[in-house]
Amino acid sequence: MKVLPNFLVGRPETAEFDFSGIVVDGNGTGWRNGDAVFGVVPPGLCRKSREGALSEYTVVPSSHISSRPANTTPVQAAGIAAVGLTAYQCLFDVAGLEEVCQGRWVKVMASASERNRTYVMELGADEITELLTSPWSSHATRPKFNVILDAVGLADDSLYAKSETYLAPGGVFISVGPQPTGWVDVPKLMKLMFHLIQPDWLGGIKRRWIWVSGQPRKDTIDAVQKFVADGKVKPVIDSVYAFEDVFQAYDRIMSERATGKVVVKVDPDVE
């Protein structure tokens, strides 16, 4: 989005999407004043209504929120919705993980730097590869992957361009959407777009590429809530900042060193 002018992306707008908080007006939706909830203001709604999460009050459809799990604090719950919705829709709605799991063990390989190897293994990965020293194409001789999930939003086309070497026929390459960080990434993005529209009979890539944006649905956000409430998913917090230190929070995000969610406390009294 950095490469697009303000008038195309609807800026200025209230920033950010994830939140947790207390209902102050259920407006006849079934939510009661005082209910503890978490939820998301999706980008489309931000642009349309100028509502956002980085504020004392925000207005969202009732389908965009769910009850805060009793085993989470407000700070932990603030980072659940967007990543939870995206991950759920990528793995279950698109990749069909429930069907894949039936009667089979699912192996998870993740990419991480050597510095974060232990951290990622503790989150549940079965194997770690360090992309700078062991690119995905080096795994071509292993049993091929059924699903590749690009949770970073790479604008670089090379990972998908070589996917036939490590992604099984019928497998799917899922992306949270290419996110160029500047004009230097535009040529890479154009190459990716070319790969996506090139027919396989003209040398195109014979693997599916699907963009998942994590649009909120009531059934999905409630499913994510249950995963957290049952202890199957644990929110991971990197750091917490006071509202007046919001620019430090953005510095942390832009450092690309965060290992978890960066949370801004609008209310200084919550934990």
UniProtKB/TrEMBL annotation:
Origin: domain of life: Eukaryota
TM ranges: none
Entry-linked Pfam families: ADH_zinc_N_2
Enoyl reductase (ER) domain ranges (all copies): 10-264
GO molecular function, one term: oxidoreductase activity
One Gene Ontology cellular component annotation held by this UniProt entry: mitochondrion
InterPro entries named in the record: ER, GroES-like_sf, NAD(P)-bd_dom_sf, YIM1/Zinc_Alcohol_DH_Fams
Protein known as: Enoyl reductase (ER) domain-containing protein
